[in-house]
Design a protein that fits this description.
Blueprint: H1 7-28, H2 31-53, E1 72-73, E2 79-80, H3 91-127, H4 129-143, H5 147-158, H6 162-172, H7 175-188, H8 192-199, H9 204-241, H10 252-259, H11 268-295, H12 297-302
Antiparallel strand pairs: 1-2
Helix pairs in contact: 2-3, 2-11, 3-4, 3-6, 3-7, 3-9, 4-7, 5-6, 7-9, 8-9, 9-10, 9-11, 10-11
């Protein structure tokens, strides 16, 4: 006869399943969240397994197949599903290769900017006083300069390149995080549990790290999800202008730049990279919108 679970084990089962169950429940109730998750998952798969699933070498040239439209089959029987460019390179293979750069730039830049912004906002909001005033005036001054203009100016001075672009986007994108986190900290530090922690004799550093930081990190996660899309757009824009990643690295922005002069005769050279950028950014924004709902305690309570 099978052993029956004890009362304690039965009580623990819902608790162990509660977090995944809430996540799945909210995701299934949100078509936008489901769409965003599927898009982001597909892009990540392309980025990681691109060299394996790519139908051709993204740098491989075939001058006999220049400017061929989508669906063209060459003499060797290979089908250019999305057409070819001015050098006979397969557009689909290049879009898959470009996804690696977009994911790398988006994720790494956001990790850098998010880390800086969270620390900056946490210190500013928690310390307060003259420190808060000085730190926020610096942020106000930087916010007066449009983000893309600031990035273009720095790129023009420092130079282009993948590593340089990641650092530029990482060290210029922290301003939004600082403002948001600082506002959250100002609200959380007045909560009763924070006051109780002081009453129990905990020092300021411990209160900041154990009681305030965990309660503002959800806002940083939601903001980071949205900022990935903004960063991908910034990388594509800079590469299109010649201030970002340089050839032979394949990026969607460079593909747009290559195809702009042939847009009337070979529309597919710009259409498909543009669609890839649009779908990726929309997927990231949709996922960020769902994360905001999932991390909202009021919505979690109803799920």
């Amino acid at each position: 006869m099978d052993a029956q679970p004890s009362t304690g084990q039965i009580a623990d089962m819902p608790a162990r399943r509660s977090a995944p169950a809430r996540l799945v429940a909210i995701l299934l109730k949100s078509p936008v969240g489901m769409a965003g998750s599927l898009i982001v998952f597909a892009i990540v798969l392309l980025a990681f397994f691109g060299p394996v699933i790519s139908p051709q070498d993204p740098h491989g040239r075939n001058l006999r197949a220049r400017f061929e439209p989508p669906g063209y089959v060459d003499e060797q029987g290979f089908t250019y599903s999305l057409g070819s460019d001015q050098l006979g390179r397969d557009i689909l293979s290049r879009i898959i290769a470009g996804s690696r750069v977009s994911v790398l730039v988006g994720v790494v830049s956001v990790l850098i900017s998010g880390t800086i912004g969270v620390i900056y906002g946490l210190i500013s909001g928690f310390v307060g006083g003259i420190v808060d005033s000085v730190l926020m005036r610096i942020v106000d001054g930087l916010l007066a300069i449009p983000f893309i203009i600031l990035v273009i100016a720095i790129s023009g001075v420092v130079g282009a390149g993948l590593s340089t672009l990641i650092l530029i986007l990482g060290f210029t994108g922290w301003i939004t995080y600082a403002r948001v986190i600082r506002g959250e900290v100002l609200k959380v530090r007045e909560m009763e549990y924070v006051i109780a922690a002081y009453a129990l004799g905990q020092n300021r550093l411990k209160v900041m790290l154990q009681h305030i930081l965990p309660n503002v990190v959800s806002s940083a996660i939601v903001l980071a999800a949205v900022q990935v899309g903004v960063t991908i757009l910034a990388e594509s824009s800079l590469s299109f202008l010649g201030l970002g990643v340089k050839p032979p690295t394949v990026t969607w922005g460079l593909m747009l730049a290559d195809g702009k002069q042939y847009i009337n005769s070979a529309w597919w050279m710009t259409a498909y990279p543009g669609i890839a950028i649009t779908i990726t950014v929309l997927g990231v924004v949709f996922l960020g919108d769902w994360l905001r709902d999932f991390l909202d305690p009021n919505i979690r309570g109803r799920a």
